[in-house]
Amino acid sequence: MQALYAQLLVGLINGSFYALLSLGLAVIFGMLNIVNFAHGALYMMGAFCAYFLLNIAGIGYWPALVIAPIAVGIFGMLLERTLLKWLAGLDHLYGMLLTFGIALIVQGVFQNYFGSSGLPYAIPDELKGGMNLGFMFLPVYRGWVVVFSLVVCLATWFLIERTRLGAYLRAATENPTLVRAFGINVPRMITLTYGLGVGLAALAGVLSAPINQVRPLMGADLIIVVFAVVVIGGMGSIMGSIITGFALGVIEGLTKYFYPEASNTVVFVLMVLVLLVKPTGLTGRAA
Amino acid sequence: MTVMTDYILPVKSRGLHDEMIAFGIMTALLLIVPLTGVYPYFVMQALCFALLACAFNLLIGYGGLLSFGHAMFLGTAGYVSGHALKVWGFSPELGIVAGTAAAGALAVVTGSVAIRRQGIYFAMITLALSQLLYFIYLQATFTHGEDGIQGIPQGYMFGLLNLANPTILYYIVLACFLFGFLVIFRAINSPFGEVLKSTRENEQRAISLGYKTDQYKLLAFILSGTLAGFAGSLKVFVAQNASLTDVHWSMSGEIVLMTLVGGLGTVFGPVIGAFVIIAMQQYLAGFGQWVTVIQGVIFASCVLTFRRGIAGEISHRFGISL
């Protein structure tokens, strides 16, 4: 039973990352019509940013949790201003190809300087150790990751679905020309949206640094799973992304316990099943 | 919104004529390669990738479907051919048939799943499916995991032609490449190809005209996957191994890159692109991971400034059809 709970927890943690990343993808896709293939690379940059902050500047985990997403978010906004904005009006697939190229560049540069092996990042002192919950032993840091990710996901949902800024954002997704006619600076909103999505990815990176080690290719395989999550959940709904992300993480965790050989593939198999039964995805509108 | 291949304006009246001439030049150049002293294995490898890129281009260039998982056909055919040749002792021609058939069967299954969605979703689904196969091959025993299938015998084609002889192998690879190329060329100039293009331009309208577009897309997917597998089977004789690299997502990315550089939706672009990228990899092999960075830069600059690709740019500038 202990092992089952442990795998469930691992599943929840992976689910947190899936949720944070697919949420960012959905937000970016809604606004820019771009499937951000660089999302995995930017997630990795978030982790490296935390690593640099600690080892070069001596800045610890808590400030890094704020600084890294902002720094990587600014990097993302620069990318949007200098590269992505030229794709407006072109086929969606060009956005995917361009961001794939960006991912190759970023990952390649990091691989050059840091190889492929993992760099350690220590768990902050406040979150070390564990709690005995009676039925299982809960490492504090892992519990923190799940709770904190959930809070961030819900806050993002609130920002987009329940605030005035979010309303502008959703309106600009539907009809950018009309929103511009109201005097709202849509290009700036697009840049900020990309920054927000990228910041979420970087935040996931910082959260994962103490668990998964910091590696140049840590995001490369993850992004493919997140794509499958997005196909299952659809990119039309923020809450849909969050729920699908966590749910698939849990299912993956359960698979690790009951049939470990399939744990790498279960998300992809589920994607196939969903496509066979409901081709538009669970929450999605047809695309 | 512009379709990806809008940049290539076909010159209808002379199109086929130009392409025939270009085909003649290409064939002549490739026929004399063994006399020039160019390392034959380099050209053979490039030819395998050229066929692979042409197969990929059939989907994106004429069907508007971007597959980000074409490595799965390359890898599957490679593993099946390699296993058949080495373990079951198949003759080369049967080994090629086995690998190609396996890729074709895989295309039937994956195609019927993937064509349920279009555009970016199609790309994500094909990528996820190929990753699924990657993990299956990683765990399967017959693929030998990280090691791959090594030292695959080349044998005697039809019991006569010694494939260990580079010149003989070269002409067989060339013949197979030209065969695959002509199959694709025939397909895109057939009524089937016309319906496929109309699906790309306006699927709703094609449906309203009574075409079952899903069937056309599936058929294009199967044809593309089978020919990609054919290329994968040929590659086994050139490289004499079959490994996980061939199923990895980065391989799928390279296929996309070759076609993008050469020219999406052009007839000869994928061939040009394959030679350019393979040559680049050869010359830059000493730069390690910088090759990945350079590929990324090429990717980004092609998308931003050079969307027609080499062949598309030539046909645009000189008004010829390539």
TrEMBL record, chain A:
Pfam families: BPD_transp_2. InterPro entries: ABC_transp_permease, BCAA_transport_permease. The keyword Transport applies. Signal peptide: none annotated. The chain crosses the membrane at residues 6-29, 36-54, 60-79, 91-110, 141-160, 190-211, 223-251, 258-277. Keywords: Amino-acid transport, Cell membrane, Membrane, Transmembrane, Transmembrane helix, Transport. It is found in: Cell membrane. It is a multi-pass membrane protein. Belongs to the binding-protein-dependent transport system permease family. LivHM subfamily. This is Branched-chain amino acid ABC transporter permease. It comes from Bradyrhizobium campsiandrae.
TrEMBL record, chain B:
This is Branched-chain amino acid ABC transporter permease. The keyword Zinc does not apply. It comes from the Bacteria. InterPro entries: ABC_transp_permease (IPR001851), LivM-like (IPR043428). The chain crosses the membrane at residues 20-42, 49-74, 94-113, 120-137, 168-188, 218-237, 257-280, 287-306. It is found in: Cell membrane. CDD domains: TM_PBP1_LivM_like. It is a multi-pass membrane protein. The keyword Membrane applies. Keywords: Cell membrane, Membrane, Transmembrane, Transmembrane helix. It holds the Pfam family BPD_transp_2.
